[in-house]
Amino acid sequence: MTTTKLDLTGLKCPLPALKTRKALKSVIAGDFLEVHCTDPLSVIDIPALIQQTGDKVEITERSENRIVFLIEKTDEPIGKSNGAARP
Hints:
The longest helix has 12 residues, at 42-53. Helix 1 (15-24) packs parallel to helix 2 (42-53). It is globular, with a radius of gyration of 13 Å. Strands 1-2-4-3 form a 4-stranded mixed beta sheet, covered by helices on one side. The protein has one domain (3-72): Translation Initiation Factor IF3, CATH 3.30.110. Strand 1, helix 1 (15-24) and strand 2 form a beta-alpha-beta unit. It has helices at 15-24, 42-53, and strands spanning 3-8, 32-37, 56-62, 67-72. The protein contains 2 helices and 4 strands; from the N terminus they run βαβαββ. By secondary structure, the protein is α+β, with helices and mostly antiparallel strands. It starts with a strand and ends in a 15-residue tail after the last strand.
């Protein structure tokens, strides 16, 4: 298992979620992506993104100055995690 770190401090919505999505494409199943953010909206945006991708996420640090997410890449296909069909 490998952990890739992604420093998104100073970036504002929607950039943290967009850059996290892009970074996840290069992470293989079973590995982790550690994302560091300062945008308070990332606590909403990044978990919503991970719900769409089917991966797993937890907030490992949350302070006034920083939020750290640990995302585990799964082998679940994007958009298939909840079984919902797209119109």
